[in-house]
Amino acid sequence: MHDRSHRHEAGLVRRGIVEVVPHPQYGDVILDHDIALIKLSKPVVFNQVHIAPVCLPSPGQKFDEGTAVVTGWGSMAYFCSKKYFPYVTENMICAGLKEGGKDACQGDSGGPMVIDNGVGGYVLAGLVSWGIECAMPDHPGVYTNVANYAAWISEVIAGSETCDAAA
C-alpha cells in the first residue's frame, strides 16, 4: 500500500527513535519476553483517517478464538536459519491455520497481531516473534502475548496518548 522509498508520499509520517526500552527479563530464557518499546522523537498526531493508536489488552486477557490480522513488510517466503526452539511459554501465542497458507514471515518481527475489539478499534493481542518456516501446515507462527505485558507497557508509557479500549 505504501512505497517507503518515496520520501514525500502522502500520509507518510517519519519520526526518529529517542529510546528503546527492552523488557527487563528479555534474554533470561531464549525468545521469552520478546518485547520492547520505542520512544519517538516527536509525538504522532492521531486521527481516525490515517493514524490511530491500537488498544492494549487487559492484563491476562485471553485470545483463544477469533480472527487476527498481522501486519508487516517481511518476506512472502521462508529462507532463513533452521535454529528454532521446540517450546512455547505462557508469554507466547500460537496463531495460524492448520492447513497453513497464512502467517508472518522473516522481516515481520515486532509487527502487530491485532484483533477487532467490536467497537471500531483493534486490540494488540500479539507481536510477531518467531516460527518454523512460514505458513507451513501444522506450524503456526509464534507471537509475544501482549496481555502478559500490559501492566509493564502502561507503566513505561504513562502519560502517553492511548486507545480507549471501551470506545
UniProtKB/TrEMBL annotation:
Pfam entry (one): Trypsin
Keyword presence, Disulfide bond: yes
GO cellular component: extracellular space
SMART domains, alphabetized: Tryp_SPc (SM00020)
MF annotations from Gene Ontology: serine-type endopeptidase activity
Residue ranges of every copy of the Peptidase S1 domain listed in the record: 1-158
Keywords: Disulfide bond, Hydrolase, Protease, Serine protease
Cited CDD domains: Tryp_SPc (cd00190)
Biological processes per GO annotation: proteolysis
Family in the record: Belongs to the peptidase S1 family. CLIP subfamily.
Annotated protein name in UniProt: Trypsin 5G1
Species of provenance: Penaeus vannamei (Whiteleg shrimp)
